[in-house]
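Lab notes, practical 5.
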Amino acid sequence: MKIKSNILGWIIFIVIFGTVGITSGLDLWKTTNDKIPATFSEGSLAGQYNPADIRGSYTFAEIQNAFEIPVEDLGIAFGIKDSSNYASFQVKELETIYSSLAADGKEVGTGSVRTYVALYKGLPITLADGTYLPKPAVDILKAKAPLTQEQFQFLDTHSVEVP
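Output from the prediction step:
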């Protein structure tokens, strides 16, 4: 069986745009990310958001919405100078602000935000040796978070000054 080229063109057009139209109509076609962190699936924390799923593209406002941590606390904790930018500040920008510390093996970035959020909310987190928190973050955690003795010791040895 032979198909004429103009009919084949119409078939391809209908299949492509028909698929997009149908999946859009059924709300299956998504071109944006909802930026909702994964949740814990087991235990007493089942259903709660997991801070280990925070990505560099998250803004402080998105973290506030998911974990109920005020953007003011996040902005102050990580030494963001302009308070009007707290909500729109992306986590990945911390690596630029604290780039001078990277040469010493002291990373302040996405891992630091994950650690901060987990400690602030009393959620489980593996404390990584190369992850550091700015001094204001440590001060906020010591004042507001339910910390264990091990976490206090970690904070005492893994804090850095804001550049």
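Observations recorded by the TA: Residues 1-31 form one domain. The helical segments are 5-25, 60-67, 71-77, 94-97, 99-102, 110-121, 135-144, 149-157.
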